[in-house]
Amino acid sequence: MPVTHVVLFVCALAPAALMSTAAALLGSRPDDSRAVWKPFHRLAAIALLVALIQPVVLATAPPLAANAHDGAWTAWIEVTPLAAWMAALVQLLGTVIAVFSGRYLHGEPGQPRYAAAFAGVLASVHVLLLSGHWLLLIAAWAGVGVSLRDLLCFYRDRPFARLAAHKKQIVDRLADLLLLSAAGLAWAEVGGGTFAALREHIAAHGASTPLQASAVCLVLAIVLRTALFPVHGWLIQVMEAPTPVSALLHAGVVNLAGYLLMRFAPLLAVAPAARWLLVGFGLGTTFLAGFVMLTRISIKVRLAWSTVAQMGFMVLECGLGLYQLAALHLIGHSLYKAHTFLSASSAVQNTRLQIMRGRHNAALPSLVLAPAASLIVVMLVQTLVPAGSWPWWWSGVLALAWAPLLWIPVAENGEPARVWTHLCFGTALIAGYTAVATLAHHLPLGVADAPFHVAGPVALAGMALLYVGLAALQGCPHRFATWRRWSYAGFYVDEFYTRFALRVWPARWAPHDAAHAPRPGAVTSPGLTER
């Protein structure tokens, strides 16, 4: 093995090893902030430095190809450009959130347990990013779930935090069963458990019925882990956990689904049924969560619903085969959500400023003309910067997604100067977003698009329906009071799932929490999650 490959494997494995060391050491530390966080920050800083070096080493090293018939341990590990960039992103966010955690939890009991679980999540994520074998993927994903449960239950006296962890545990066990089924079907068909062997088999023989069934099981497992409708409730109720946990979960853990879908792109390319499932779940989640998000009052809960909608949109991108845009979306969403959760304390001041300025609905002409104007801007930018494999229907989807930037508030409708300023600013944002999305095709992420043209018009129609609904709520808010109430309640989907989950797998609450534990038939009111 060349020296550069040795250095590359060391850089790839070092963050996981350092975070595993932190998890093993910190759990037995005394309950003191300095004794816990000082060594954690040192190990995290070293892991971050190594993770940042990894993409540079990968770019300068000779091509590294996994050998499907290699029985050595290197066949279980795949160091790809996407994995290298994701490792750097995960460790950067983990280090920043860890520093924030030390200040946020200052004086709180149980900090060693929190730090050990936090390090365990990071270590498991690093292993998952490098996994090149079904067994390693299954173990790493299970490790993420076990460590994350300890973080969700950090405040053990909060029944809704424990309810969220319990609901997530049910979803995780079902996802594990589906992932095991996917692995078993693929392993039996290919004759090996490495992903390299899977790709070689697909390239040589295409997708047989067992492999298509494996793809469907894999997609369902990812949908469950991503907290899409109808099992999204635990992601909303996780707001009962400390704010750093919310930042870690929303900025990193739920995004793993998008990464895995990109890794299994060759399998999805030959499994239309699996791709239709992704399109259906992604579009439905985006549609429903997009409405609910606009009705919420609590800043953190609104951000949680925003994450559900964004995950639905990312899954939709992967189902449509737009993996390069999904990779850019994943990176941008991670950075944005980490910042917004960690700066949530300043949201009160921003909200007061918005109230002082007044809230105004959009003017009707702008609601009607915004999609066409947005589409013109998108098409002009695409003409200047060719998008390669960007299909025509995705231009329409993006135009609808960015059209609200051109909505003109009613208060500004009679002031030409403010209207033109608003339009110029919105147009500049749309042009900038489109240019960034277009240039994403040239980023060295190691992923390639495989557009699913049959489902493209369906996605466009779904986004058009979403836009019409949002525009109707803006233009005639009083005529849709019932719809607003249903949206505020999340369409009561989580209430049905909560009752079902507690009946199928009743929770065993501690004696001192029995008086506050949710009853199996109790409906979890939206207001309870916004305290």
From TrEMBL:
It holds the Pfam family Proton_antipo_M. Residues 77-114 form the NADH-Ubiquinone oxidoreductase (complex I) chain 5 N-terminal domain. The chain crosses the membrane at residues 6-28, 40-62, 82-102, 114-132, 177-198, 210-235, 247-270, 276-294, 362-385, 391-408, 420-440, 452-473. It comes from the Bacteria. GO terms for biological process: ATP synthesis coupled electron transport; electron transport coupled proton transport. It is a multi-pass membrane protein. Keywords: Cell membrane, Membrane, Transmembrane, Transmembrane helix, Transport. Forms a complex with DabA. Belongs to the inorganic carbon transporter (TC 9.A.2) DabB family. This is Probable inorganic carbon transporter subunit DabB. The lineage of its organism: Bacteria, Pseudomonadati, Pseudomonadota, Betaproteobacteria, Burkholderiales.
